[in-house]
Design goal:
Radius of gyration of chain A: 24 Å
Helix content of chain A: 10-25%
Order of helices and strands of chain A: EHEEHEEHEEHHEHEHEEEEEEEE
Largest sheet of chain B: 5 strands, mixed
Distance between the termini of chain A: 65 Å
Number of strands of chain B: 5
Largest sheet of chain A: 4 strands, mixed
Oligomer: heterodimer
Structural class of chain B: mainly beta
Number of helices of chain B: 1
Strand content of chain B: 15-25%
Strand order of the largest sheet of chain B: 1-2-4-3-5
Order of helices and strands of chain B: EEHEEE
Radius of gyration of chain B: 14 Å
Shape of chain B: globular
C-alpha cells in the first residue's frame, strides 16, 4: 500500500512560519475525535522551526529546519504505548489516539526526536498528525505543504520501493538515522543545517588599492590528501561546504599563476570564515 | 502568532518583542540569548527579548517597528513600554509636511540587561 511521506528542502525554507501557523490554525481550539484533541494555545510546537547560523561576517548563512513528528515506521512511541494508544495506520501515518492516550505521559518521553508534546490541561500526548483527518476527507496534501510559499515542503504518497528511489535520486536524508526509527519525513540539502564550511576571501594589494582576486586556485586538504578544489569568484571568495563539525585539521592552499601561493592551517570546529588572505 | 519564534519570546509569562544584537555587543553587556533587555534613548525606553545573532554587525541593533502594541509598565507616556512599541525610540519627524511617513529609518539607542522584575501579563 502507498504511504505518506514528507520531503523538506532545507535550502528553500525561509522561516516564514506559514506551516507553523497553519498547524496552529488547524488544531488550536479544534477537536478531531479519533485524530487529535485540541492543541493548547501556548507551549506546543507540533511543527517546530529550528535556526542554524554559520560563519561570521561577511560570510554568514542561515538555515531553517522545520521539524515535526517523523511518522516513523519503527516508532518508539508505538512500542512504548500500552493498549494500542499509539498506532501506525496502513498509510504510514502515526496517530496518538486522544482517548486511549489519556494520562499516558510516557508516550512523550518515548520520542527520541522530542516531537511529542504533553497537554497538561487535557492530560494527553499530542503531535503533528500529517493532517490525517483532512487526507481522509480527500485532501491531496497536508496543510503545511499546501501553504509553503517556496515549495520547501511537499508530500508524497508512494510505495516504499518508489520512495526509496526518490531518496536515492534526490539525495534525501532523515534526521538522526542512528536512532533506527525509519522516519517518513525526509530532508533535502540537510548539510545547510548539519554540516560546516570553511570559507575565505583572497585579495591583492596593488599599490595601496585592494582588489578581490578572481580565479585563484584554492585546494582543501586533510592529512596531505586533497578533499576539494575551487576557484575564487569575482569577489575573491571561496567556500568549502559539507564538512563535518569538529572534523579537525585541514590545510587551505591558495595559488595563483601570477600572484604566488599561501597556505592556511585550519582547525575545524564550527564553520569558519578565514578572513582575507593577501597574495603578492 | 505570538509563538512564532522570530515574532515574540515568552519570558516569565509575558510575550516580549524581539531586538536583535551582535554577539560582540551582547558579550560586552552580559546579555544572553532571550534575556530581557531595555532598549532606550532620550525619547523613551522599550523592554525587549534579546536575540543574539551573527547576522547583526557589531554596533547595530535591529527590531521591526510593527508590534502594534503599547503596554507601559507605569504611567502612560512617562514609563517604560513592554509591548514592543519601537517607534517610541525613533524621531517623529515626517518625510514632508502633510504626509504620515516617518523620516527616519534608524536611530541611536543603548541596550542594557534588564534585571528588575516586571511579572506576567
Amino acid at each position: 500500500m502507498k504511504k505518506w511521506n514528507l520531503i523538506i528542502d532545507v535550502a528553500k525554507c525561509t522561516n516564514c512560519n506559514n506551516c507553523f501557523l497553519a498547524n496552529r490554525d488547524e488544531h488550536v481550539d479544534n477537536d478531531f475525535p479519533g485524530y487529535a484533541a485540541p492543541q493548547p494555545r501556548q507551549g506546543h510546537r507540533w511543527i517546530d522551526i529550528l535556526r542554524r547560523e554559520r560563519g561570521r561576517a561577511p560570510m554568514i548563512d542561515m538555515a531553517y529546519l522545520p521539524t515535526m513528528c517523523n511518522q516513523c515506521d519503527q516508532a518508539p512511541c508505538v512500542k512504548a504505548s500500552r493498549d494500542g494508544a499509539v498506532y501506525q495506520r496502513p498509510d504510514g501515518i502515526v496517530i496518538i489516539d486522544p482517548r486511549l492516550a489519556q494520562g499516558k505521559k510516557e508516550i512523550v518521553s518515548s520520542c527520541p526526536y522530542h516531537a511529542i508534546w504533553w497537554n497538561e490541561e487535557r492530560s494527553v500526548a499530542q503531535k503533528w498528525i500529517f493532517d490525517a483527518h483532512l487526507l481522509d476527507q480527500g485532501w491531496k496534501e497536508p496543510r503545511c505543504a499546501q501553504v509553503c510559499p517556496t515549495g520547501a515542503m511537499r508530500s508524497l504518497k508512494a510505495e516504499d520501493v518508489e520512495m526509496e528511489q526518490v531518496v536515492q535520486s534526490e539525495a534525501l536524508e532523515v534526521l538522526h538515522p542512528e536512532f533506527g526509527t525509519k522516519p517518513r519525513v525526509y530532508y533535502k540539502n540537510l548539510y545547510r543545517f548539519m554540516k560546516c564550511f570553511v570559507g575565505g576571501s583572497v585579495a591583492v594589494d596593488r599599490n595601496g588599492t585592494v582588489d578581490c582576486l578572481e580565479g585563484a586556485d584554492v585546494t582543501l586538504a586533510r592529512g596531505g590528501a586533497k578533499v576539494a578544489q575551487q576557484r575564487t569568484d569575482a569577489y575573491g571568495d571561496f567556500k568549502f561546504d559539507r564538512l563535518d563539525q569538529g572534523s579537525g585539521a585541514y590545510a587551505v592552499e591558495i595559488t595563483h599563476p601570477s600572484h604566488g601561493k599561501k597556505t592556511i592551517e585550519v582547525q575545524l570546529g564550527e564553520s569558519q570564515y578565514l578572513g582575507t588572505t593577501y597574495l603578492k | 502568532m505570538d509563538d512564532v519564534k522570530d515574532h515574540r519570546i515568552c519570558i516569565d509569562g509575558y510575550y516580549y518583542w524581539i531586538v536583535r544584537i551582535s554577539p560582540d555587543d551582547a558579550r560586552a553587556r552580559g546579555i544572553g540569548r532571550h534575556d530581557l533587555v531595555k532598549v532606550y534613548n532620550d525619547r523613551g525606553a522599550v523592554l525587549c527579548a534579546a536575540d543574539v545573532t551573527v547576522a547583526m554587525a557589531a554596533g547595530v541593533a535591529h527590531s521591526c517597528e510593527s508590534s502594534a502594541s503599547y503596554d507601559p509598565v507605569g504611567e502612560p507616556g512617562k514609563s517604560i513600554d513592554r509591548g514592543g512599541c519601537m517607534n517610541l525610540l525613533t524621531p517623529s519627524r515626517r518625510q514632508s509636511t502633510k504626509t504620515e511617513s516617518s523620516a527616519a529609518m534608524s536611530c541611536l539607542v543603548q541596550i542594557e540587561k534588564w534585571k528588575e522584575t516586571v511579572g506576567a501579563a
